[in-house]
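input
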Amino acid sequence: MATGWYDSGMDTEQENVVNNETRTEGESDQLQPLITLASALLDTDRLLIAAELAKRPTNRMDLAAATGLSHRDLLRQLDILRQHGLAQLAEPAPRQPDHYSLYELNVEAFKSARKAMGKYKGIKPRPTDSRLLILDTFMPDGKLVAFPRKQEQIITILNEVARKFDPDKQYKEREVNVILEEVNEDYCTLRRHLVDYGYLSRSDGVYVKR
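output
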């Protein structure tokens, strides 16, 4: 179904707000395991405890001896690690843990954080340059997904589309249509605006880039 030039009900700023909110929520969810891991380990005492638990399940007596922490500090840091889901009582978990109850790392939490890191590396940052922002909003990956309304947006889009034409070459209308259809199926609207805005000249069915 062809898209009309004024089909977009939002300008770039509105699109940007909506897209940013959607992306921010989605990215936050994706990155939560990584954020949790970083928050839990932003303390050297907790790093020491995690390092010991990475070797094997360990009780509080041995953890205190290995880390040099007092039992009070050890309990506090262990509670934080457990709240963040990085440490847990080894199974079978006792109802009333004591000094000799075994603790272990929650391996799944680290796997989730590793997976989140992989997703983070693939997240494309939103551009801040106005031209790139317009292109990212209306022409992601070179495909025109919605026709803008504001003159600045229209000109930016047409500038980008016009780059597909060689100024030293003459094009038949059919050739112009083939090029523009790669951008948007409504190639007639695109062709008309390229002529109306002075990007292409037309004479006897032949088009030339100005």
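quick obs: The two ends are 30 Å apart (CA to CA).
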